[in-house]
Amino acid sequence: MPSLSPGGWLSPAPAGGVMASTSPAVAKRDFPWWLVAAIVIAIVAAVLIAASGLYSQVFSIVAKGIGITIFVTLVGYALASVLGLCVALMVLSDSVWLRQIGRFYVEIIRGVPILVLLFWIAFVGAPALVVSWNWVSYPLQAAGLIEPMQVRDFSLMWRAIIALTIAYSSFIAEIFRAGIQAVDIGQIEAAKALGLSRYRRFRHIIWPQAFRTILPPYGNDFIAMVKDSSLVSVLGVADITQMGKVYAAGSFRFFETYSIVAYVYLILTVGLSLALRALEKRMRRQTNE
């Protein structure tokens, strides 16, 4: 069957029904000049930072928060992925009660701004959790085996991680749900006919195909969490943004400080974006083979 080529002319589709790859002319027009420009700007900025004593000082202070930013992002997104997958499976469950609970969770959590949720978890949820823990563990406390937990013992960083986990799990659940539902139902029925268990159907049939579908939006959410991790600075967590805020408040070097903060975030997010695009292309080539 003929297919429409990028140039607008009808050309035969290749065997298997897969569209032909982009022509050399189109590929040449699509050369990533934006990336060249971004690399040039990054190199120039790096040279200026290295040559300027002031910018070097700001960068050295802001860079102290990179580890916290990466830790909060990785742990928060990993937990959000696990929770999001569980919620997605609840929404797709045969049980009407699980479906309703999963849908309730997704719609409610998605409707609350992340910053509001962060404050609620930090100053309402965390104290309530401490009170609940002390109530449950009271027999152990009475026996002198453990000490009562104080609210101050609940790290602000972990409060922020829990808030980001809950917030992003609702978005990730919808990504997983859409990816799983995109798998051809005929293949699932064939797996049932072969006698595969529910777990083996998911592990060997559904998930490998769903993952290729969810990878782009899933990766976009990961990059978004790198940026949204800056919200933890409102709790005083020493991430990149917080280190910049503290330095700017004491030195009044707002332009220099926040320029460096933006530069560091751009390095992280653009680097991740390129890595995800490379992974997508690799998976696309494997699929076409």
From TrEMBL:
Membrane topology per the entry is: Multi-pass membrane protein
Q: Which Pfam families match?
A: BPD_transp_1
Q: Which residues cross the membrane?
A: 31-54, 66-92, 112-136, 156-176, 260-279
The cross-references to Gene3D superfamilies, in alphabetical order and at most eight, read: MetI-like (1.10.3720.10)
GO terms (molecular function) for this protein are: transmembrane transporter activity
Q: Can you tell which superkingdom this protein's organism belongs to?
A: Bacteria
InterPro entries per the UniProt record, alphabetical: AA_ABC_transptr_permease_3TM (IPR010065), ArtM/GltK/GlnP/TcyL/YhdX-like (IPR043429), MetI-like (IPR000515), MetI-like_sf (IPR035906)
Family statement: Belongs to the binding-protein-dependent transport system permease family. HisMQ subfamily.
**What protein name is recorded for this chain?**
Polar amino acid transport system permease protein
Organism of origin is: Neomesorhizobium albiziae
Q: What is the lineage of its organism?
A: Bacteria, Pseudomonadati, Pseudomonadota, Alphaproteobacteria, Hyphomicrobiales
